[in-house]
Specification:
Radius of gyration: 22 Å
Largest sheet: 7 strands, mixed
Shape: globular
Structural class: alpha/beta
Number of helices: 16
Strand content: 5-15%
Helix content: 40-55%
Bound molecules: pyridoxal-5'-phosphate
Length: 457
């Protein structure tokens, strides 16, 4: 660890002793002391005691302008008043029914009006949505294999836990990546059935279709990979995937867990104008509550209606989250709010790029409606291997320096990005820029000493 990073971390430790103590008390009870591995980082994660609008407060009373927003799940802003009102009213009518109710149809209609789909099934997390989508694709096509992209994350079920963040000594050639399990405990059969291609490289996908004729049920992707910062699909890439899937009888699944609510009313399908066969939704559609869905054509979903593919869940469509989802889609994620967020996003991205230039930092800021990131790379990241070349300590320097000055620029970890919520104001954006203006020269000086990307891995 280099000196300036060490100083930022010491400052973090001085400011947040109660979070350290809380983690120490949790460790004997939970592995790493946390409930999701993504929440664990060195020296220890911040423990939060309060969140409202765009502000979060840690146990020591430090306040942060929050651009993390629960890994992009709260585009509505923390405790959005419209969502909370809907949920409070619902609480008086019951929290769980385990029986049908009309909000299910109402929310399905809202989703079908926004995305190019005709039928919806609901679940509770992004993991469940992609898991069911993949099973449905397999049931519909009567094929076993799927193609995913190296570096894309689709949750923690077996089919998705392949080549999520593979190490360089395991990943094989870029044109034909190895299938690398992302955890112990994944059956070899699941690894074998998940083929891996390189994002923005159509040839790597085509090769798999040729190698496994009539065996691929689906291609699943994050249309904008947001588990590698922010990576844009290059012109023609999504169109090429569409053609390949149609040509080979496979379904194209957009994992829109992150992008679905955040690229606009119609998610990536609308934003890029390329239609998938299936869409997976979660995170921000729930307005702060655990709501997810997978949606497709009636023809594909009929496989569930016919009883060939099974989908169920006790918590599915519990009226609490359905009330939250309806309020969010009807009254919070509106066309006007997307317009406003888009404006804030442009200001933040342009402002960051200006500061990057002034400071001499070798980096770029990139945005896609509500999401964006400062990418510490000399040129645009197009796939996982470009992304993996990051100087991790330099990124930590950026993140801790921002946090120490009261702005949480994004979740911890360099594969994440910021989210601008409905609650953010111009003042929040200016605050972000003010702090970045102070931090960028510090990080630039460190980068100059270390050499651009010199310390990768
Ligand atoms: C693109 C994508 N898909 C799926 C998931 C899994 O969602 P969940 O954490 O709700 O299971 C995530 C989570 O970050 C994600 O980013």
């Amino acid at each position: 660890m280099y000196e300036q990073l060490k100083k930022e971390i010491e400052s973090f430790e001085r400011r947040t002793p109660k979070s350290r103590a809380a983690l120490e008390r949790s460790k004997p009870w939970m592995p790493l002391g946390v409930s999701s591995n993504f929440r664990s980082y060195e020296p220890y994660p911040l423990f939060i005691e309060h969140a409202e609008g765009t502000q979060v407060r840690d146990l020591d009373g430090n306040e942060y302008v929050d651009f993390n927003l629960c890994f992009g799940a709260i585009m509505a802003g923390h405790s959005n008043a419209i969502v909370i009102k809907a949920v409070e009213e619902q609480f008086r009518r019951g929290t769980m029914y385990g029986m049908p109710h009309v909000m299910e149809r109402e929310l399905a209609e809202e989703i079908c009006a926004r995305y190019p789909v005709e039928n919806v099934r609901f679940s509770n997390s992004g993991t469940e949505a992609t898991m069911h989508a993949i099973r449905l694709a397999r049931g519909y096509t009567d094929r076993e294999k799927i193609i995913k992209f190296e570096g894309c994350y689709h949750g923690v079920h077996d089919a998705a836990m392949v080549s999520v963040k593979p190490k360089a000594d395991k990943w094989g050639s870029v044109s034909s990546p190895n299938q690398v399990p992302a955890s112990a405990g994944i059956p070899q059969g699941a690894v074998d059935a998940t083929l891996v291609a390189t994002f923005n490289d159509l040839e790597s996908v085509e090769r798999l279709f040729r190698k496994y004729p009539d065996q691929v049920a689906a291609v699943i992707l994050e249309p904008v990979p947001m588990n590698m910062g922010v990576v844009l699909p290059q012109p023609g890439f999504l169109e090429g995937l569409r053609q390949l899937c149609t040509g080979h009888g496979a379904l194209l699944i957009y994992d829109e867990v992150k992008t679905g609510a955040k690229l606009g009313r119609g998610g990536a399908s609308e934003y890029f104008g390329v239609k998938p066969d299936m869409v997976c939704l979660a995170k921000s559609i729930g307005g702060g509550f655990p709501l997810a869905a997978f949606a497709t054509s009636r023809k594909v979903m009929d496989v569930i209606a016919e009883g060939r593919v099974f989908h169920a869940g006790t918590y599915n469509t519990n009226p609490t989250v359905m009330a939250a989802g309806l309020a969010t889609l009807r009254h919070v994620l509106t066309a006007e709010n997307y317009q406003r967020i888009n404006k804030l996003s442009k200001r933040l991205v342009e402002g960051c790029n200006q500061i990057i230039k002034q400071s001499g930092l070798v980096a770029y800021a990139i945005g896609c409606v509500a999401n964006g990131a400062v990418m510490l790379y000399p040129s645009e990241v197009k796939n996982y291997r470009d992304w993996a070349a990051i100087d991790i300590d330099l990124w930590r320097h950026y993140w801790f320096a921002m946090v120490n000055r009261g702005v949480m620029p994004q979740p911890h970890y360099w594969d994440e990005q910021w989210t601008i919520s409905v609650a953010h104001t111009e003042a929040d954006i200016e605050r972000h820029l003010e702090v970045f203006e102070e931090v960028a020269p510090l990080v630039a000086a460190a980068q100059k000493k270390r050499g651009v990307l010199a310390a990768a891995h």
